Amino acid sequence: MSVFHLEIVTPDRSFFSEEVEMVIVRGIEGDLAILKDRAPLITPLKIGKIRIFQDGKEKVAAVVDGYISVENHKTTIITEAAEWPEEIDIERAEAAKKRAEVLLKERPDGIDVARAQLALQRALNRIEVGKLKRID
């Protein structure tokens, strides 16, 4: 299968930089599969999983927002945060989920509802991806 270079960068680190066969990301209008020689593209990403296909195997990571740029034989993902399943502290993610759910249920004065909803989405995504490490 044809390969292309995928680079995933966060403010803290170069998360991933290798040749891959395909990557699937969650764009603002749905999932996008990127293969070699795809037409150029720049689009925002939503909170979700990045599925990386390499040497016939799949790797999954949790990401928070950002954007994807596809050009020639290189795809770059810039994201606020990216984590492999084994890097995710599920207990911490569960606690963040509970905090966000309480805020959204009780809606105390001055609550930023959009921020609480995003916190809930991030926590749910981290929990889902974090549980993948227990399946392997």
From TrEMBL:
ATP synthase epsilon subunit C-terminal domain: residues covered: 86-129
Keyword Cell division appears in the UniProt entry: no
Location of this chain's protein in the cell: Cell membrane; Endomembrane system
Membrane disposition: Peripheral membrane protein
Record keywords, A-Z: ATP synthesis, Cell membrane, CF(1), Hydrogen ion transport, Ion transport, Membrane, Transport
Keyword Zinc-finger tagged: no
InterPro entries attached to this UniProt entry: ATP_synth_F1_dsu/esu (IPR001469), ATP_synth_F1_dsu/esu_N (IPR020546), ATP_synth_F1_esu_C (IPR020547)
Subunit record text: F-type ATPases have 2 components, CF(1) - the catalytic core - and CF(0) - the membrane proton channel. CF(1) has five subunits: alpha(3), beta(3), gamma(1), delta(1), epsilon(1). CF(0) has three main subunits: a, b and c.
Family indicated by similarity: Belongs to the ATPase epsilon chain family.
Protein name from the UniProt record: ATP synthase epsilon chain
Lineage of the species this protein comes from: Bacteria, Bacillati, Bacillota, Tissierellia, Tissierellales
